[in-house]
Amino acid sequence: MNINSELLSLTNLIILVTCLISYMAFKDRSKKAQLIFHPVTIGEKNEYYRFLTSGFIHADGWHLGVNMFVLWSFGNAIERFYYPHYLSETWGITMYLGLYFGGIIVSSIPSFLQYRNAPHYSALGASGGVSAVVFAIIFFEPWENLYLYAAIPIPQIIAGLGYLYYSWYMDKKGTDNIGHMAHFTGAIWGIFFTGLMNYELFARFIQKTLEGPTWL
After folding, report:
1. Cα(first)–Cα(last) distance of the chain, in Å?
2. What is the pLDDT of residues 99-141, one digit of tens each?
3. What are the structural domain ranges in the chain?
4. What is the per-residue DSSP string for 67-114?
5. Domain 10-211 class, CATH top level
6. For the segment 150-168, what is each residue's pLDDT rounded down to a tens digit?
7. How many Cβ atoms are within 10 Å of 146's Cβ, its own excluded?
């Protein structure tokens, strides 16, 4: 398989598998119960696989669609950045898998520690991995524009900092059922995992950030 093929990219394969598993879980609640992130069950039965499998299921079609659209938008781009910066394409693929699936796993750790004695709490979705991918892109191109509502340009680093603050604030506020800390933790994982796998990227990121946007 040519990993650089647009249709057979690693990102698109992850999206396909996630959509299939999520669809099966929509139809069969018992499958969702077996895969969902439930800290109490993990602690009592040592079912640590749930840290990963929860990233393959979603609450509904909208939840799935948003996560997979963002992953498709940024994941295929980060693949093009990742592979040239590592020793080989195979190593680049390994790092990409570590970025995405590591984001899913690591982003659930704070919730596990906080809710390990709370039977009512459960979580699902790929948001931690998606956040890791998005912030890895920011790490490579901090001043590239994102387009809010497909029209309003915002530099990625500004949007990223705003997103981190929002996630931190909403987690502290705790007025909804969204795992904001998972978003925050996944984003931090995306930045540091990418940099630690190739230290030169930290210097590159600092240099590009200090240079500012090219349009100034």
Report:
1. 42
2. 999 999 999 999 999 899 999 989 898 989 999 998 998 888 8
3. 10-211
4. HHHHHHHHHHHHHHHHGGGSSSHHHHHHHHHHHHHHHHHHHHHHHHHH
5. mainly alpha
6. 567 788 888 888 878 877 7
7. 18
